[in-house]
Amino acid sequence: MNTHMSTMKWLIRRELWEHKGAFVYAPLAVAAALVLLLGGGFLYALATTGAFHFQANGQQVITIEGVPPEMYAKAAAIAASSYLAITAPLFLVLPVVVFFYCLAALHDERRDRSILFWKSLPMSDQETVLSKAAVALVVAPLLTVAIGIATSLVLLVLGLLASAVKGVNLIAPVLANANFYLSPLYLLSFLPLYIVWALPTVGWLLLVSSWARSKVFLWAVGVPVIALALLAWFDFLVGRFSGLSLNVKWFGEEVVARLLGGLMPGIWFGEVNGRALAEQNAGLDGPMLIGLSYGTLASPAVWIAAAAGCAMIYGAIRLRRWRDEG
Question: What transmembrane ranges does the database entry give (predicted)?
């Protein structure tokens, strides 16, 4: 058991060494851009004006000098519960990075024949493929979350200091708000949910990566999209001559979308009551969002898709054992 865990740790470290640019430098570059653009822009705006301007439809409707004292608590609550949302662009980088990592994970080692070297080491195909799945499902999201939290704190500090200079001191109310400390934990609590929803996509991409000899992206994206197009065309023909209709929408949402879109953080919100999300106008209600999100696990389709993802990962393990192009 200890030997197995040690091997998995080493394999995961190897993946991070080989893909440090994608998993570390890419999100760091986006984080630096956010700090420069948002933080710098916010500081510049406050440095060049002494008032807070509110606009609607591009036209100024009210300008006040500072914030009324009775609004401090509300402003602090919004800042304390929503400061992590400012780094949302980081979580748009995550699915792109993981998508192309999974596509190349097993294909590239056959193409450059490095698979001959790795197969000469005392590591099983199961350990190798599972380490790549673990990097995609756990390590990459955790790195993004860590960078996102650090970036959010930097931007929050810049905003609070700039506001304090202008006479709107929200530092104490924000630090006294429990959501300031709980928000990172709320974000981390979504990781198990992300793993369940991402399993079908990771499994599909690893399966294609282990099987396709070339044009991996075209195989991974083209097969489900062409299948959807053919099914839609067949449904059209059947409908014209028999009046029957196939459930093309279901195939698109439950098969194609899960195969290709599962890596997008928050994809499960498509299954959540939209009205509840729209009512988040006084900061993000972390416990409510967590409850709504985990409520999607009550759907059997989610678990069927996750099981299919595990089956495809198993298929990738078997294919790696047999498809040695050395």
Answer: 21-47, 83-106, 133-165, 185-207, 216-234, 297-317
d(CA 16, CA 10): 10
Angle at 28 between CA 259 and CA 44, to 5 degrees: 120
Query: Cα–Cα distance between 144 and 23 in angstroms, integer?
Result: 8
**Is the CB of residue 155 less than 8 Å from the CB of residue 38?**
yes
Rounded to 10 degrees, what is the CA torsion of 199, 204, 207, 208?
Answer: -150
Query: Which pTM value belongs to this model?
Result: 0.83
| pLDDT tens for each residue of 2-13 | 666 688 888 888
Burial label for 132, CB within 10 Å (0-12, 13-18, 19+), is buried
The CA distances from residue 106 to 59, 121, 217, 282, 318, in Å, are: 54, 16, 13, 46, 12
Integer Cα distance of 50 and 63 in angstroms: 10
DSSP 275: H
CA terminus-to-terminus distance, the chain: 31
Contacting residues for 258 by C-beta, under 8 A, at least 6 apart: 200, 201, 305
Q: Measure the CA–CA gap between 39 and 152, rounded to whole angstroms.
A: 10
Structure token pair of residue 209: 């990566």
DSSP state, residue 284? -
